From TrEMBL:
It comes from Pseudooceanicola batsensis (strain ATCC BAA-863 / DSM 15984 / KCTC 12145 / HTCC2597). Its EC number is 2.3.1.30. This is Serine acetyltransferase. The keyword Acyltransferase applies. It catalyses: L-serine + acetyl-CoA = O-acetyl-L-serine + CoA.
Length: 267
């Protein structure tokens, strides 16, 4: 007798863990039962939960929650990579952020995670040619979260943005996989050129709080940018840069700076 392969939605360890954590959280704090049921347990999948959460946070008098939810549902149905990236972002946040103790925390409470997921929907809209709607998502993310990510920017999976206040990522920026950054990071342009004008961040890069990376420059894989630095030139892979303007001050110190989250460097 032939055996059919289980569907992706039937085998979802991230979502299974989240629903179990949600049940446990309600047992520990019954007063949060309404919120947790609405955000998690009322939904059959992580895609539905993400669509609901984004819609609830971004709704305003100009765009209803129901309409936003329909837009998000359409995006998640059309592009399975959106939810796959969200799963990777949840695991990344749990692994790297010492303040994250459960998988449900990013979806319920962490604005960095929520803003990145809203950006992912906006980026899908942008690729579909629906730029004005994508700009609406960008505007609401900036107003609600204090995070401004242009919908045309390209961002990989396994992204962790800790605290996340005042993040700015420009239109032609590219962020690789497994990147970690802290609050007040800017991936910005220089001058008024209209072409490719924003940084390209490699995989596994760690960007410290307040760092500014400006212009069409490349930051090599597994490099480390110290807090408060202003980076104006390319950075080779596996290097640590610091200062204003930033200069190489040593090796990265480990294979994956974005995973260890180690911001210390020797003299």
């Amino acid at each position: 007798m032939a055996h059919t392969q289980p569907s992706v939605t039937a085998v979802d360890p991230v979502w299974d863990r989240m629903t179990q954590e949600a049940e446990d959280a309600i047992s520990e704090e019954p007063l949060l039962g309404g919120q947790i049921h609405s955000a998690l347990l009322h939904h059959p999948s992580i895609e539905n939960a993400l669509a609901y959460r984004i819609a609830m946070k971004l709704t305003n008098s100009e765009m209803s929650e129901q309409l936003l939810r329909e837009i998000c549902d359409e995006a998640y149905r059309a592009d399975p990579d959106l939810a796959a990236s969200a799963r990777a972002d949840i695991v990344a946040t749990y692994d790297r952020d010492p303040a994250c103790h459960r998988f449900i925390q990013p979806l319920l409470y962490f604005k960095g995670f929520q803003a990145v997921q809203a950006y992912r929907v906006a980026h899908w809209l942008w690729r579909e040619g629906r730029q004005d709607l994508a700009y609406f998502f960008q505007m609401r993310c900036s107003e609600v979260y204090g995070i401004d990510i242009h919908p045309a920017a390209r961002i990989g999976q396994g992204i962790m943005i800790d605290h996340a206040h005042s993040i700015v990522i420009g239109e032609t920026a590219v962020v690789g996989n497994n990147v970690s950054m802290l609050h007040s990071v800017t991936l910005g342009g220089t001058g008024k050129e209209e072409e490719d004008r924003h940084p390209k961040i490699g995989d596994g890069v760690l960007i410290g709080a307040g760092a500014k990376v400006l212009g069409n420059i490349r930051i090599g894989h597994c490099s480390r940018i110290a807090a408060g630095s202003v980076v104006l030139h390319d950075v080779d892979s596996c290097k640590t840069v610091a200062g204003v303007p930033a200069k190489v001050v040593g090796e990265a110190g480990c294979d994956q700076p974005s995973l260890t989250m180690d911001h210390l460097f020797g003299g």
